[in-house]
Write a structure and sequence with these properties.
Two copies of one chain form a homodimer. The first copy, chain A, is α+β, with helices and mostly antiparallel strands. Chain A starts with a helix and ends with a helix. Chain A contains twelve helices and 16 strands. The first copy, chain A, folds into two domains: about 280 residues, Aminopeptidase, CATH 3.40.630; about 110 residues, Alpha-Beta Plaits, CATH 3.30.70. Helix content of chain A is about 35%, strand content about 20%.
Chain lengths: ~400, ~400
């Protein structure tokens, strides 16, 4: 079924004109004035489509279209409209706008559904203004307490609850999207796989689990001029050796295992002192719970071995663990059938990043659909997706809603 | 010739009781009240020995003992009494006190010298309060301008010149130690070589040259979850590989070549972002000018090769270059003869650290003598030297002064 390309494009353009950085990036921090302007536009389009606007107590917006079967649970589709401080054009916005466009296309074509359809814009997905991310879906899924979220402050000390009230989007708890037949989140991949391998579309089977470690390596602080090489216990050299071993081991695990050392520091941090201590962070991810546990074990053993080989000591602390998420098999299979029917080159893929769908999956059968990100660019002005992939993804979504409704 | 061990020990103890940190370290920052107390004690002992006290316009103290030959240039001996914030018992102090003890021993034994003898306490050698180090000897040697030094401020904004005046040690330019037959600086090794190899004594042939580089490596910033390992240009992995190669290459150069990466940072410094850029510092040292130049060339080539192998870019900037220093051959040979005569197990050795002697070597024939540092500990409360090595070093110095005078 053909969507209204022009409508989809002009609506996305309208949102993406609201707040643009010097580098051409998007700047719609959650609950900011820019976010309010985007919300107001979304609300107007929901009304234009003849849908009902519902706002919950986290500020999440829902466009509600009743179904023909009074006993059928709704099908939700959406994502978020907030962005990183200098974010991309389609991250989040694609999910909300493709959901709205799919519903509008169904209406335009006079297709009625048994299930109510709900187009959703979750509040503060990015976590760029209020930390951590996915605060609204986290409350709905039972991960966070609403008052804990209300008390969250941005870097200027402004509270979530105050901004929510200020921009006029404090709604009712009874509007929370808690019970549904399905929740579908279309999103950009944010990685390079689909683009690189020539796929038009990704059927997301789950999200990688994450283990985060803080690592300290202790060697010996020494004078950079008076300590011969053979007498050093240079903590940075030990860390360098360990980090390369960790990368090698992770590559042995194969896709989708990844490991990232994002932060590093040496102390005492003087140009002419051999560093006696080094800190670095580890973020490792895998789609398989058992493999993620095994990887953590391997990582710990490698660090300990490299340290003991070099007469250094290590201290490892786990700061984070998120189990791998597996999306609903029914939705995955339905997506695959629709893709085959539409002759779309689709690949089963994992999400490496967090999404509202990851939380919502705990309470509602959930699925995600990816469109390719050109060169995998994400959270930057260079983030882009081919327009034909945006269109294909939205048409695929439309067909999927029909299939799930059956 | 036997020195007066008891006098040497009690005088050192008196200085080392002035300001002691909780960890048992010394805290005599240059021109502080603690430094003044140490200076006042030194002055009293100079007078007690019948020597004349001279202060120059940098605050450097000299105890002057006339010689029998009115045409002979003086022989200087000394070091510094200022310390690091939590420094050791013998760093600097050994040079001043062994010099004083040697002269007192000569006087006690009725030995007259042709040359005047000058015991010296240089101001602000450590550079712990006023940066950079060796400010007073640097002016005398012509490296620094005196007004530039006067204007130097400590971290509280207090000027060198104001503190010098406040503690009453502003002297006269005409008292600068500029012309001399020789300058000898006894010092602790601050490295582990003598201790490890079982020597009692080090005859310092020179000081290592230093080349300092700032290195930036540029890869690509990426999402830690969505970017497969094979798609990464992780700047920290490139840096780790380069640093290990640099260490390997430097070890191939053999002693006394050393390389230190003391500071490192990754950006954007987020636990879940693959670092797109890494900065690290390099401090490399060698006793041979040509070899130091070659090492720098090798280091640059290694970084460039590792970067190009990994599709990364590097930017390398030299922030420091100090040529290797070679001390006076006559003093080195004289020291060796004295050591042989006294049957002291002495080793020719390089200084990896900077010293006032390194500057003074530019204007006066200069030599340095090292006593062993136990386990090479330096700039910390654990710094230590066996008492018998302190005594041997002082006796050796006494004999060397006699030899140089002849």
């Amino acid at each position: 079924m053909r969507i209204n390309e022009e409508r989809l494009r002009s609506r996305m353009d309208a949102i993406n004109r609201i707040a643009v950085t010097e580098e051409g990036g998007m700047m719609r921090l959650a609950l900011s004035d820019a976010d309010k302007t985007a919300r107001d536009l979304l609300k107007s389009w929901i009304k234009e489509a003849g849908m009902e606007v519902r706002i919950d107590d986290l500020g999440t917006i829902q466009g509600y279209l009743p179904g023909t079967d009074p006993n059928s649970l709704p099908i939700g589709v959406g994502s978020h409209m907030d962005t990183q401080p200098n974010g991309g054009r389609y991250d989040g916005l694609f999910g909300v706008m493709s959901g709205l466009e799919a519903v509008c296309t169904l209406i335009d074509n006079g297709i009625t559904m048994k299930s109510p359809l709900v187009v959703i814009d979750w509040t503060n997905e990015e976590g760029a203004r209020f930390v951590p991310p996915m605060l609204a879906s986290g409350v709905v899924a039972g991960n966070f307490d609403v008052n804990w979220v209300y008390a969250k402050e941005d870097k200027n000390g402004i509270k979530y609850v105050d901004e929510l009230t200020r921009i006029g989007y404090m709604g009712s708890k009874s509007n929370r999207f808690e019970k549904a037949k399905a929740y579908i989140e279309p999103h950009i991949e944010q990685g390079p796989i689909l683009d690189q391998e020539g796929y038009e579309f990704g059927i997301v089977t789950g999200a990688l689990g994450i283990t985060g470690l803080d690592v300290k390596i202790k060697g010996e602080t020494n004078h950079a001029g008076t300590t011969p090489m053979r007498n050093r216990k240079d903590a940075l050299m030990v860390a360098a050796e360990a980090m390369l071993e960790l990368r090698k081991k992770t590559i042995e695990y194969g896709d989708p295992a990844v490991i990232t050392m994002g932060i590093i520091s040496a102390s005492p941090a003087s140009k002419n002192i051999v560093p006696g201590e080094v800190y670095f962070s580890i973020d490792m991810r895998h789609d398989n719970d058992e493999a993620l546990t095994r990887l953590e074990q391997d990582v710990r053993e490698i660090i300990q071995k490299v340290c003991s080989d070099n007469c250094a000591e290590s201290h490892i602390e786990r700061y984070w663990r998120a189990d791998p998420v597996h999306f609903d098999e029914g939705i995955i299979n339905a997506s695959e059938k629709v893709a085959n029917k539409l002759k779309i080159r689709a690949k089963r893929i994992y999400s490496g990043a967090g999404h509202d769908a990851v939380f919502i999956n705990r309470i509602i059968p959930t699925g995600m659909l990816f469109v390719p990100s050109i060169k995998g660019m994400s959270h930057c002005p260079q983030e882009d997706t081919k327009w034909e992939d945006i269109v294909t993804g939205t048409e695929m979504l439309t067909e999927l809603l029909i299939k799930i409704d059956k």
